[in-house]
Specification:
Length: 244
């Protein structure tokens, strides 16, 4: 899975670094006390759910599926590229029809900064919902592919589903904070530039970069699952042969 790994690194979050560079977040980039910080998100009910899932994975049924490792990896890359391209098109003036389109700036310099930012907040939030939907769908697809490749990957897929269900609400809350941070950047650029037109281009560039960094962060759990397909040595060869 070297091609995907070249685009997305598990060693750090570009989203956190990007927010830090924009000076809208004081989040520290550290791997220390990761287990403790992750554990703080999981309450007693979640712990019981995960414990039950972990205990049950040994009995996970395995049925060979219809997607090979190579097909799953290529599908991941295809969908990832499509998500990125969709975001890029939404920023391009001559991109043709697209469901989510960058707001057209007013000709007059706005006097109410909050009101001026609101269309961009709506735009960014709509992008987040679209990205979340597509990545959730991709993750389900990768779990199904993994579950059909080997008993070990079927167990990993079941555990990934249980952990994903536990953390989904928390991750959505975290990502929901980003539009507010983007609003701080909007206000900062508005104050730093002599005119509305002068600040619009750099702001849009920041917003696009932020969305791309968010896509990368959201894809990390899926990437981990896809990379496991390439490291598993017990893949059912009948599945790959069937897809040749």
């Amino acid at each position: 899975m070297t091609q995907a790994a070249a685009h997305i690194s598990l060693n750090g979050s570009r989203l956190v670094r990007f927010l830090s560079d924009l000076h809208v977040s004081d989040a520290a980039i550290t791997q220390k006390r990761f287990a403790e910080r992750l554990g703080s998100l999981i309450d007693l009910s979640d712990s019981i759910t995960l414990s039950n899932a972990h205990s049950a994975i040994g009995a996970t049924a395995f049925e060979p599926g219809g997607m090979s490792r190579e097909d799953a990896q290529q599908e991941f890359l295809r969908v990832r590229a499509a998500i990125v391209q969709s975001v890029m098109r939404s920023f391009a003036a001559q991109s043709g029809p697209t469901r989510i389109k960058l707001p057209v700036p007013d000709a007059e310099t706005p006097t109410d900064i909050s009101a001026a930012f609101e269309p961009y907040r709506t735009f960014y939030s709509a992008q987040q919902r679209d990205i979340d939907f597509k990545i959730q769908k991709l993750q389900l697809q990768m779990r199904e592919a993994a579950a059909g490749l080997s008993p070990e990957l079927a167990q990993l897929s079941a555990l990934d589903a249980a952990l994903g269900n536990t953390l989904t609400l928390h991750t959505r809350k975290f990502f929901a904070v980003i539009p507010g941070l983007l609003g701080k950047r909007f206000e900062y650029l508005y104050q730093q530039h002599p005119s509305w037109s002068a600040m619009h281009k750099p702001f849009c560039a920041d917003m696009q970069g932020l969305l791309l960094a968010e896509i990368e962060a959201r894809l990390l759990p899926v990437l981990g699952l896809v990379e496991a397909l390439g490291t598993d040595t017990n893949t059912d060869t009948s599945t790959d042969k069937k897809n040749l």
